[in-house]
Amino acid sequence: MLSERTEVQVxxxxxxxxxxxxxxxxxxxxETPITFDTAIFTPEERRPWLLSHPEDGPYRLMVATDTDSxxxxxxxxxxxxxxxxxxxxxxxxxxxLRPDAGGRGVGTLLYEALFEALSGEDLHRAYAxxxxxxxxxxRLHERFGFRHVGTYREVGRKFGRYWxxxxxxxxx
Length: 172
Description:
alpha+beta, seven-stranded mixed beta sheet, transferase, GNAT_dom, GNAT family N-acetyltransferase
Protein backbone atom coordinates (compact mmCIF):
# COMPACT_ATOMS: atom_id res chain seq x y z
CA MET A 1 0.00 0.00 0.00
CA LEU A 2 1.27 3.44 -0.88
CA SER A 3 1.49 6.20 1.66
CA GLU A 4 0.92 9.87 0.91
CA ARG A 5 4.67 10.36 1.29
CA THR A 6 5.82 7.74 -1.22
CA GLU A 7 8.94 8.95 -3.02
CA VAL A 8 8.74 8.36 -6.74
CA GLN A 9 11.51 7.96 -9.30
CA VAL A 10 10.82 8.11 -13.04
CA UNK A 11 13.20 6.40 -15.45
CA UNK A 12 13.18 4.72 -18.87
CA UNK A 13 11.63 1.26 -18.85
CA UNK A 14 13.87 -1.79 -19.25
CA UNK A 15 13.44 -5.49 -20.03
CA UNK A 16 13.68 -6.17 -16.30
CA UNK A 17 10.34 -4.35 -15.92
CA UNK A 18 8.51 -6.62 -18.36
CA UNK A 19 6.73 -8.87 -15.86
CA UNK A 20 5.54 -6.02 -13.61
CA UNK A 21 4.43 -3.93 -16.60
CA UNK A 22 2.53 -6.89 -18.04
CA UNK A 23 0.81 -7.51 -14.69
CA UNK A 24 -0.16 -3.84 -14.42
CA UNK A 25 -1.56 -3.75 -17.95
CA UNK A 26 -3.42 -7.04 -17.49
CA UNK A 27 -5.32 -5.48 -14.58
CA UNK A 28 -6.79 -2.98 -17.05
CA UNK A 29 -7.48 -5.70 -19.62
CA UNK A 30 -9.39 -7.82 -17.06
CA GLU A 31 -11.11 -5.17 -14.97
CA THR A 32 -11.74 -2.00 -17.00
CA PRO A 33 -12.72 -0.61 -20.40
CA ILE A 34 -9.68 1.69 -20.31
CA THR A 35 -7.94 -0.59 -22.82
CA PHE A 36 -9.89 -2.35 -25.53
CA ASP A 37 -7.64 -5.41 -25.33
CA THR A 38 -9.87 -8.25 -24.10
CA ALA A 39 -7.37 -11.09 -23.53
CA ILE A 40 -4.57 -10.93 -20.99
CA PHE A 41 -0.93 -11.13 -22.08
CA THR A 42 2.00 -13.22 -20.97
CA PRO A 43 5.25 -11.30 -20.50
CA GLU A 44 6.63 -13.02 -23.62
CA GLU A 45 3.63 -11.83 -25.67
CA ARG A 46 4.18 -8.30 -24.33
CA ARG A 47 7.95 -8.26 -25.07
CA PRO A 48 7.61 -6.82 -28.64
CA TRP A 49 5.63 -3.90 -27.17
CA LEU A 50 8.37 -3.22 -24.63
CA LEU A 51 11.14 -3.49 -27.24
CA SER A 52 9.30 -1.03 -29.50
CA HIS A 53 10.06 1.68 -26.90
CA PRO A 54 13.85 2.22 -26.84
CA GLU A 55 15.61 4.73 -24.58
CA ASP A 56 15.86 7.25 -27.42
CA GLY A 57 13.77 8.33 -30.36
CA PRO A 58 10.11 9.30 -30.52
CA TYR A 59 8.70 6.10 -28.99
CA ARG A 60 9.47 6.03 -25.29
CA LEU A 61 8.52 4.10 -22.20
CA MET A 62 8.87 5.89 -18.87
CA VAL A 63 8.36 3.94 -15.63
CA ALA A 64 7.55 5.34 -12.17
CA THR A 65 8.86 3.36 -9.22
CA ASP A 66 8.61 3.66 -5.46
CA THR A 67 12.10 4.87 -4.51
CA ASP A 68 12.27 2.58 -1.46
CA SER A 69 10.72 -0.67 -2.71
CA UNK A 70 11.47 -0.17 -6.43
CA UNK A 71 7.94 -1.44 -7.16
CA UNK A 72 6.47 -0.11 -10.40
CA UNK A 73 3.68 2.40 -9.77
CA UNK A 74 2.87 3.14 -13.40
CA UNK A 75 4.18 3.90 -16.84
CA UNK A 76 3.74 6.31 -19.74
CA UNK A 77 4.45 5.66 -23.40
CA UNK A 78 4.62 7.42 -26.71
CA UNK A 79 3.87 5.18 -29.67
CA UNK A 80 3.26 5.57 -33.40
CA UNK A 81 -0.04 7.34 -34.03
CA UNK A 82 -0.63 5.56 -37.35
CA UNK A 83 1.57 3.34 -39.52
CA UNK A 84 1.72 5.51 -42.67
CA UNK A 85 4.89 7.59 -43.07
CA UNK A 86 3.14 10.98 -43.19
CA UNK A 87 2.08 10.40 -39.56
CA UNK A 88 5.69 10.02 -38.37
CA UNK A 89 5.72 13.38 -36.54
CA UNK A 90 2.65 12.42 -34.48
CA UNK A 91 2.59 10.11 -31.46
CA UNK A 92 -0.11 8.56 -29.33
CA UNK A 93 0.58 8.84 -25.61
CA UNK A 94 -0.86 7.02 -22.65
CA UNK A 95 -0.45 6.54 -18.92
CA UNK A 96 -1.29 3.44 -16.86
CA LEU A 97 -1.07 3.54 -13.06
CA ARG A 98 -1.23 0.80 -10.50
CA PRO A 99 -4.77 1.03 -9.04
CA ASP A 100 -3.51 2.29 -5.66
CA ALA A 101 -1.20 4.89 -7.26
CA GLY A 102 -3.88 7.22 -8.64
CA GLY A 103 -4.45 10.68 -7.22
CA ARG A 104 -0.87 11.04 -5.92
CA GLY A 105 0.76 12.88 -8.81
CA VAL A 106 2.41 9.80 -10.34
CA GLY A 107 0.72 10.35 -13.71
CA THR A 108 1.90 13.96 -13.69
CA LEU A 109 5.49 12.90 -12.97
CA LEU A 110 5.34 10.33 -15.77
CA TYR A 111 4.03 12.80 -18.35
CA GLU A 112 6.56 15.46 -17.27
CA ALA A 113 9.38 12.97 -17.87
CA LEU A 114 7.89 11.68 -21.11
CA PHE A 115 7.34 15.12 -22.65
CA GLU A 116 10.80 16.24 -21.53
CA ALA A 117 12.30 13.16 -23.22
CA LEU A 118 10.35 13.91 -26.40
CA SER A 119 11.25 17.61 -26.49
CA GLY A 120 14.31 17.05 -28.70
CA GLU A 121 12.55 14.74 -31.16
CA ASP A 122 11.12 15.66 -34.57
CA LEU A 123 7.53 15.53 -33.36
CA HIS A 124 4.65 17.90 -34.04
CA ARG A 125 1.59 16.54 -32.18
CA ALA A 126 0.63 14.12 -29.43
CA TYR A 127 -2.74 12.38 -29.34
CA ALA A 128 -4.54 10.54 -26.56
CA UNK A 129 -7.65 8.39 -26.83
CA UNK A 130 -9.54 8.14 -23.54
CA UNK A 131 -12.31 5.56 -23.10
CA UNK A 132 -15.27 7.27 -21.48
CA UNK A 133 -16.02 7.92 -18.73
CA UNK A 134 -12.57 8.60 -17.23
CA UNK A 135 -12.51 12.02 -15.57
CA UNK A 136 -9.11 11.47 -13.94
CA UNK A 137 -7.47 10.86 -17.32
CA UNK A 138 -9.27 13.80 -18.93
CA ARG A 139 -8.04 16.08 -16.12
CA LEU A 140 -4.46 14.78 -16.45
CA HIS A 141 -4.41 15.39 -20.20
CA GLU A 142 -5.99 18.85 -19.91
CA ARG A 143 -3.37 19.76 -17.29
CA PHE A 144 -0.73 19.02 -19.96
CA GLY A 145 -2.38 21.24 -22.56
CA PHE A 146 -4.37 18.60 -24.43
CA ARG A 147 -7.65 19.77 -25.94
CA HIS A 148 -10.65 17.65 -26.87
CA VAL A 149 -10.94 17.29 -30.65
CA GLY A 150 -13.74 14.76 -30.96
CA THR A 151 -15.37 11.61 -29.68
CA TYR A 152 -15.82 8.30 -31.42
CA ARG A 153 -19.24 7.10 -30.23
CA GLU A 154 -19.63 3.44 -29.22
CA VAL A 155 -16.40 2.55 -31.03
CA GLY A 156 -15.41 -0.40 -28.83
CA ARG A 157 -17.34 -3.28 -27.27
CA LYS A 158 -16.12 -4.80 -24.03
CA PHE A 159 -17.91 -6.37 -21.06
CA GLY A 160 -21.07 -6.65 -23.15
CA ARG A 161 -21.50 -2.95 -23.85
CA TYR A 162 -20.23 -0.23 -26.17
CA TRP A 163 -17.80 2.48 -25.07
CA UNK A 164 -17.02 5.94 -26.43
CA UNK A 165 -13.45 7.18 -26.90
CA UNK A 166 -12.73 10.89 -26.57
CA UNK A 167 -9.70 12.09 -28.54
CA UNK A 168 -7.36 14.79 -27.32
CA UNK A 169 -4.37 16.49 -28.95
CA UNK A 170 -1.57 18.84 -28.00
CA UNK A 171 1.31 20.51 -29.80
CA UNK A 172 4.81 19.23 -29.14
